[in-house]
Amino acid sequence: MTIPISVPEALLRETLAAVAGQHDMPITIRQVETLARAAVEILADHLDTAPPRTPLGVAIPPVQLAVLIGICNGLESAEIAARMCRSEDTVKTHLRRLFARLGVNNRAHAASVALAAGVVPAAVVRVPRREGAAA
User: Fold this and answer.
1) How confident is the model at residue 107 (pLDDT cuts 50, 70, 90)?
2) Using CA atoms, how far apart are residues 116 and 130, in angstroms rounded to an integer?
3) Closest C-alpha among 44, 42, 41, 19 to residue 30
4) CB within 10 Å: which end of the chain, N or C, has fewer?
């Protein structure tokens, strides 16, 4: 299988070559971590095995499912990012992709569609307790 090379992938290859000592380009550990995450996402896009299809008939990658579970639990992007050890911008990118996959325009719609279709089981959603509610 031949994988077409895009500009980001070419940049990734050059940077990884620098990490391997094949170029004299200085690079920090943080940049290596960022590039490693990017490499995983790029490779995942080209794998023959797609994520399993949901009851909605769309495949949702595990990282986007984790973001979806976060929004079903009422978490903000920054909270999801902290729990996933990703940047807030990365989480927002996953949200945009997730909205496109589900055909929705906002978090509330995504959460309701995911819960109604069983994509996110109700058991993983924490319901906040109201003050004064019996234990």
Assistant:
1) very high
2) 23
3) 19
4) C
